[in-house]
Amino acid sequence: MRAIWKGAVAFGLVNVPVKLYAATGEHEVPLHQVHRDDGGRIRYRKVCSVCGETIQFSDIAKGYETDEGELVVLTDQDLAELPLATEREISVVEFVPAEQVDPILLAKTYYLEPEKTSAKPYALLREALEASDRMAVVKVALRQRESMAVLRVRDNVICLQTLLWPDEVREADFPILDTDVTVRPQELAMASSLVESLAGDFDPSGFEDSYQAALEALIEAKVSSGSTRQVPATAAKDESTGGEVVDLLAALQRSVEKARAGRGGAAADTEEATEETSPAKRARASSSDEDGDPGAGRKPAAKRASKASASAKDDAPAASTRSRRAKADDDGEPAAPKKRASTARSGAAKEPAKAASRRRAS
């Protein structure tokens, strides 16, 4: 916890330096107002009812309107100059029996923590309150407002509980309560019996906020099923009005200008490249005009290359034959007789096999 106030409890000539902490807190699920279509948060502007302008917080003052219709404007400086005798002090006024404090007067509760140097006087005050079964009525200034409060002990801790001023409690003005109603003894006995049947010791931990539990279960079910969306980005803030606006037309205009600028740069680069290459193209075109038709010059060259390739292919077998003949001449043995000799050897090898086959047949 974080201390929200520092001061001292003063009773008689004794001062007890303490720190003040909030003792309670709400358990509600924080829900925001959002736009159903896009999930944007709903904002509220502080707009002047006279000029219609959005007013900054620093320009806002407090005002009081009299019964005659006149307005009294109070600035922060005016309020800061008001005297607060109990600004940093919890001043004990009296000690009263606990049962005399009407619970309807009880407001917010705070814990008092003693400083390291005030442990003993803190314990002394705590023991005195418990032994006497009384509450200490005090006055204290919190958030620039003086309040009435009581000091009481709870679980070995001194608690400060602010009280409403008497004129802040409304009267129950219900005329029907003044009507005479007759209650029969039998009805009263039955009601008393019902009270006794439901009698018990109060234990707040036995109660549960069923609505809050159902709300948390609903949120958890939506999260588990994926029924969520991304939190939308906050719109740009307009400094002139202090509000949040989205100028779609201006955004589109900037996008168009940016796209045009990008295309213009690319076109300029293309034109420069074209201008750089054009002289070379013109030079080649001029050379072609001087030599004649470039296409006519290239086609005969291709034909000559094709004929040369075909001639080389036709001459290749003849060259190979001439090479073999030349080699045979160098060895002194013609190529044709070598083939006939090979055939004769093959026939001689087959004769014994044929003779053996005829003998087996006979």
What do these coordinates show?
Pfam families: Ku (PF02735). One of its GO terms (molecular function) is double-stranded DNA binding. Keywords: DNA damage, DNA recombination, DNA repair, DNA-binding. The protein is an alpha+beta fold and 362 residues long. Among the domains are: 1-21 and 77-166, Ku70, Chain: A, Domain 2, CATH 2.40.290.10; 246-288. 43% of the residues lie in helices and 19% in strands. Strands 1-2-6-9-8-7-5 form a seven-stranded mixed beta barrel. The chain has a two-stranded antiparallel sheet with strand order 3-4. β1 (5-11) and β2 (14-22) form a beta hairpin.
Helical segment tally? 7
Radius of gyration: 55 Å
Largest sheet: 7 strands, mixed, barrel
Q: What CATH architecture label of the domain at 1-21 and 77-166 applies?
A: Beta Barrel
Q: What is the CATH T-level topology of the domain at 1-21 and 77-166?
A: Ku70, Chain: A, Domain 2
CATH class of the domain at 1-21 and 77-166: Mainly Beta
Order of helices and strands: EEEEHEEHEEEHHHHH
The total beta strand count reads 9
> Mean pLDDT, nearest integer?
76
Strand content: 15-25%
Uncertain runs are 238-246, 273-281, 285-324, 326-350
Relative helix content? 40-55%
What's the end-to-end separation, in Å?
A: 129 Å
Characteristic key phrases:
362 residues, alpha+beta, Ku70, Chain: A, Domain 2, 7-stranded mixed beta barrel, two-stranded antiparallel ribbon, 43% helix
Helix-strand layout with pairing:
Blueprint: E1 5-11, E2 14-22, E3 62-65, E4 71-74, H1 76-80, E5 89-97, E6 106-114, H2 119-132, E7 134-142, E8 145-154, E9 157-163, H3 185-197, H4 210-224, H5 248-291, H6 294-331, H7 335-361
Parallel strand pairs: 1-5
Antiparallel strand pairs: 1-2, 2-6, 3-4, 5-7, 6-9, 7-8, 8-9
InterPro entries: DNA_bd_Ku70/Ku80 (IPR006164), Prok_Ku (IPR009187), SPOC-like_C_dom_sf (IPR016194)
Keywords: DNA damage, DNA recombination, DNA repair, DNA-binding
Protein name: Non-homologous end joining protein Ku
